[in-house]
């Protein structure tokens, strides 16, 4: 398993300096995405953590399997559905990231186990 | 089922303002929001507002949210707040269904204020579904709430105030705004915002639109095209721009679904962003005791949403027996404030739109 660590620079889109807002260092949260270890920070949603790691494709459209990413980021548009801890159709743009989460790209409508 | 005097759906600027004036009359309020925190979209708005002192001019959006929330907290004995809760049903017998922590709750209400706000509009072009293409609200959310950049090289589509302000916020966060496209011949938003961008070297291209996005799994290029005076694409003017993100700021449309479910009379009014409820002068819909406030009643600025909230909070409370002695005077004051906010050339569209939804009884 590859382990990616949050560092400033390549593949990391986190803001460190901002003229108006403060983004203090936060506790690191580890999670798995499609079998690979990733990390986000406290306060992240699942989608914001993935985007910070440069991952923009979250799912595929049901019929044509076109790539899907964030569109609204506030839980309106259903473009960010993923399978999280084996539960399908989770709105990852509004679901807080938590330690040890297993996040998977969702193909199709999802299966309820 | 629990009975509540006044239920407010949505804790953005309109809902918070409504909760405050209603609670001040002595009315008991249940304020419901689907997000983990109150404040709606204000919490990610880093820019300072225009308008007059009464609507918090010169204050940053996120600080306006703090002020509205602290006002509500001063009435905590009469305002109950539930976050992470989505109102999923509205029924004819004055009942709402709420989904909270994977459980359904039913509440009966005497009066209801719907302040659900608005959602992003989309634009039709080839490959508009590629990841890396976002609504302007999503860009603000990612950057200003989570501290994550939407990309490093972006093109903004739409020159209304949102497009202009978010472009500036992107530059503040360190993103290269490669161009701002506007299909119309003129910039849509305030000149002061556009000038700021021009000074920072942003190309504002009017009569130009996005024709298609290119990329495999994520956008990495877009093709723009110029438009003639009848909005038709001019062949041969196509240009490619390398990007890793595109921001769509072509407006918002009201989140009217609960009102539709409840049976309120709705009308399609393009000037107000889409489907909006027919309302009287007190923001009551065609359903008795159901009121609206903010963008759900027609997309405007947050300042109007706040004043509409104050007004509908007072009106809804009065309707169920909590009328203050200076009620008429306060209502008249809020109505005048709204009139002022909608005056001038920038308010023309809103004024035209609102004329179409005034209920005949109160027009």
Secondary-structure topology with pairs:
The complex is a heterodimer of chains A (113) and B (363).
Chain A: E1 28-33, E2 36-41, H1 46-52, E3 59-60, E4 67-68, E5 81-84, E6 87-91, E7 101-104
Parallel strand pairs in A: 1-7
Antiparallel strand pairs in A: 1-2, 3-4, 5-6, 5-7
Chain B: E1 2-9, H1 13-24, E2 29-32, H2 61-73, E3 79-82, E4 85-91, E5 95-100, E6 103-114, E7 118-120, E8 133-135, H3 136-145, E9 153-157, H4 161-172, E10 176-182, H5 191-199, E11 204-206, E12 208-214, E13 221-226, E14 239-242, E15 245-248, E16 252-254, H6 257-262, E17 266-269, E18 274-277, E19 290-292, H7 302-319, H8 327-341, H9 348-355
Parallel strand pairs in B: 1-2, 1-6, 2-3, 6-19, 8-15, 9-10, 9-15, 10-11
Antiparallel strand pairs in B: 4-5, 5-6, 7-16, 12-13, 13-14, 17-18
Helix pairs in contact in B: 1-2, 1-7, 3-4, 4-5, 7-8
Short description:
The complex is a heterodimer of chains A (113) and B (363). Chain A has one helix at 46-52; strands at 28-33, 36-41, 59-60, 67-68, 81-84, 87-91, 101-104.
Characterization of this structure:
The complex is a heterodimer of chains A (113) and B (363). Chain A has 113 residues and is mainly beta. Helices cover 6% and strands 26% of the residues of chain A. Chain A is built from 1 helix and 7 strands, in the order ββαβββββ. Chain A has one helix spanning 46-52; strands at 28-33, 36-41, 59-60, 67-68, 81-84, 87-91, 101-104. Chain A has a 5-stranded mixed β-sheet, covered by helices on one side. Chain A has a two-stranded antiparallel ribbon with strand order 3-4. In chain A, strand 3 and strand 4 (67-68) form a beta hairpin. Chain A is globular and about 45 Å long. Residues 1-11 of chain A have low confidence and may be disordered. Chain B has 363 residues and is an alpha/beta fold. Chain B has 2 domains: 2-119 and 252-362, 3-Layer(bba) Sandwich (FAD/NAD(P)-binding domain); 124-248, FAD/NAD(P)-binding domain (3-Layer(bba) Sandwich). Helices cover 28% and strands 27% of the residues of chain B. In chain B, strands 1, 2, 3, 4, 5, 6 and 19 form a 7-stranded mixed β-sheet that branches. In chain B, helix 1 runs parallel beside helix 2, helix 1 runs parallel beside helix 7 (302-319) and helix 3 packs parallel to helix 4 (161-172). The longest helix of chain B is centred in the last third of the chain and has 18 residues, at 302-319. The mean pLDDT of chain B is 95. The A-B interface holds A 13-15, 17-21, 23, 43-45, 48, 51-52, 56-58, 61, 66-77, 79, 93-94, 96 and B 34-36, 41, 46, 60, 119-120, 122, 129-135, 137-138, 141-144, 146-152, 172-174, 217-218, 255.
